[in-house]
Amino acid sequence: METIYQIAEKLWGRFTGWLKEEKNHTRFILVCFAVSLIPLLVLSFFNHPAMDDFNYGVLTRHALIENKGLAVIPAVLGAAVQRAVNLWHSWQGTYAFAIIAALRPSIITEKITFIQTFILLAVFVAGFLYFCEVMLHRILGASKAVAAVAACVVMTLCIQYVPFGVEAFYWWNGSVGYTGLFSAMLAYFGLLADSLRRRRISWKRMTGLLLLTVLLAGGMYPTALLTAVILFFLVVDVLAGKKYSKAMKIQGTALFLAYLPAFGLSFIAPGNARRQALFQHRTPFEAIYKSYTKSLEYMYTEAMNVVIVLVVFALFLYMLWKLKDTKFSFGCPLLFTLVTYSMVVVMWVPGIYAVRYISGGRYYNILYYGVVLFWSANAVYYAGWLRRQYEKCGAEAAELIRKAAPAILGVVGTACMILGIWKIDIVTDLEEITTASALKSVVYGEAQVYHEEIKEREALYNDSDVKRVVVDEVTYRPELLYYGTLTTDPQDGRNLAMCEYYDKEYMVKREPEQISEEAQEGAQEDAESSESNTQQ
User: Fold this and answer.
1) Which residues contact 434 (CB under 8 A, 6 or more apart)?
2) What is the SS3 assignment for 103?
3) SS3 for 506?
4) Smallest Cα–Cα separation from 61: which of 53, 51, 69?
5) From CA 114, how far away is CA 48, in angstroms rounded?
6) Distance in angstroms (rounded) separating the CA atoms of residues 86 and 95
7) Quick one: 55 exposed, middle or buried, by C-beta within 10 A (0-12, 13-18, 19+)?
8) 3-state DSSP: the chain helix, strand, coil percent, rounded to 5?
9) How far is CA 233 from the centre of its chain?
10) Is there a contact between 298 and 347 (Cβ–Cβ < 8 Å)?
11) Element (H, E) at 353
12) CB distance 117 to 95 below 8 Å
């Protein structure tokens, strides 16, 4: 035992020594983050289209089937645009989202549905990594390694505690419009911030910014409104700032002016008025006030747990250590808190204004991302501010603080440990983690059974000789995969959308009573057959 202990102690010493180098602990964090995504990607191989995937993809599906060769490309793109036009008139003005939703990869075949999770996670990771790299490395002056570590911390909190994982990374229609466009928005903000830092925009970057401008303007209203607010303050800063060149002023103004008609096209859609007629909206000022109060309540209740608190505090301590070599001033921290909180609030306003509440788990997902970014950004900023205050202290005070630091850290560490032991329910909190939920579905076999049952259904759906489809309820409903299937009502809009998508006359889920009656009849027939055999 003593030999084993000595070997373990030696290996641990080497590991901790290896971690002391910045590049090594960054690699370790990146590897851990990548490993945490593996169960999510594995689960994606059991995923299938659901709900509005069929409604939005009906025209592109038929265009794909009815055309051959290179003619498929313009036909499918034209069908996606047509679907956006139809929805613009009948339901909602978010034309860019409608086009992306209609171009769902699995319209080709349900067998490649897994690729959608890969795309969504790739966009999510790329957007967050780039945003953090710009803000922390290029603007604040921290190293790329520090930016990567902070990004991994933020992304881990966002992914693992996302309120509705199925609507974040599995259900294409709900995921790409909210989580997908939120990630694109972060990349857009990163590009804008870096352009302000450089005080110039190359023609290549300008082209990319214009494309993202139209994409976000035609996306979901929470991200579209926040983008509009950011662009407004950007153009004010560029026009008022003497440090910017004439070319930069023209480019900044052009981005804002390009956004206005693109966003206006979404805003004036007749479909918005038709949809709005179903709800009683608030006044703009009431919506803003309610957004501040409701978001504050959400921030401290549903979007908060002890793990998030401890991780954000750990990020604060890490940045307090790593920002020692930066030159950024970190002035006016309270103003920074107010501004960043208001940015979170902006995303609440469309829902509170239009329908008086937040509808849909996918909407809550991006609000949660906003809360995590708010806490993380303030942890970084206040760490920098404290670092600058420490540097302003006299030599004697600085030496006193330096000597007291181990004791302070010891007390804080002990308090965090007590808080963790006291508040963390290992079983309950573990089930909330997205990766744990994915592992549970795969290890227990729920995902596999669900996958096989839906595959059997899809064989019927894609059989052109079968025009009337009646299916049983699935045995399991994996939390990250199940988002509704056929209902028992043949006139349900979801059923009708699937009929149109698969070219069927009738599609319905069998009534539970009907299943029960059939089971009883089957049992009775078996009993009679058994009795007959016995008599013979």
Assistant:
1) 40, 159, 160, 161, 162, 165, 480
2) coil
3) strand
4) 53
5) 8
6) 10
7) buried
8) 80, 0, 20
9) 25
10) no
11) helix 333-355
12) no
**Residue 518 pLDDT more than 80?**
no
C-alpha distance from residue 296 to each of 256, 351, 394 (Å) = 30, 15, 39
Which residue do the tokens 């939920």 mark? 437
CA Rg value for the chain? 27
How is 390-439 classified by DSSP, letter by letter? HHHS-HHHHHHHHHHHHHHHHHHHHHHHHHHHHH--HHHHHHHSHHHHHH
Write out pLDDT tens, residues 411-455. Answer: 565 665 555 554 555 545 566 799 999 999 999 999 999 999 999
- The residue with tokens 């991302």 is 369
- DSSP string of 275-298? HHTTS-PPPHHHHHHHHHHHHHHH
CA-closest candidate to residue 137, choices 314, 380, 392: 380
Average pLDDT of every residue of the chain: 86
Residue 470 — φ and ψ, nearest 5°? -130, 125
Host H or E run for residue 468:
strand 468-471
Q: Is the dihedral of CA 370, 372, 373, 377 positive or negative?
A: positive
Q: Per-residue DSSP letters for 297-346?
A: HHHHTTT--HHHHHHHHHHHHHHHHHGGG-------HHHHHHHHHHHHHH
pTM (2 d.p.): 0.89
**What ranges in 433-488 are assigned the alpha helix state H?**
434-443, 446-461
What 3-state DSSP class applies to 509? Answer: strand
Structure-token match 């300008």, residue found? 206
Model confidence pLDDT, tens digit, residues 313-372: 999 989 988 888 888 989 899 999 999 999 999 999 998 888 778 878 899 999 999 999
DSSP string, 172-228: HHHHIIIIIHHHHHHHHHHHHHHHHHHT---HHHHHHHHHHHHHHHTS-HHHHHHHH
User: Which range (21-25, 413-417, 459-463, 524-528) has the least confidence?
Assistant: 524-528
